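Before surveying the methods themselves, we first show a specimen of the format, giving the amino acid sequence and backbone structure tokens:

:::
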Amino acid sequence: MGTHMKTTVEISDPLLESAKRHARARGTTLRALIEEGLRILLAEAVSEQGAFVLRDASVTGNGLQPDVRAGAWDRMIALAYEGRGS
């Protein structure tokens, strides 16, 4: 599953002993147990955030102005930069 990094984490003695017993009972390693717990916790955090919803940024109006509606892009660009020195 990719690369692994060694790190040190301080865990209370009672919690560590309980985790070691649990890992032994499941026939797994402490490392695998910790990784599984972190994956579950992080997956829950993502699902709690929910899906991204884009806010409605629509504006009122009747679309393009009549003189631009059938025009070409160069006409629209010219109007957008009109009076701005270009």
About this structure: The first helix runs from residue 13 to 26. Residues 12 and 42 are 22 Å apart (CA to CA). The mean pLDDT is 86. The chain has four helices and no strands.
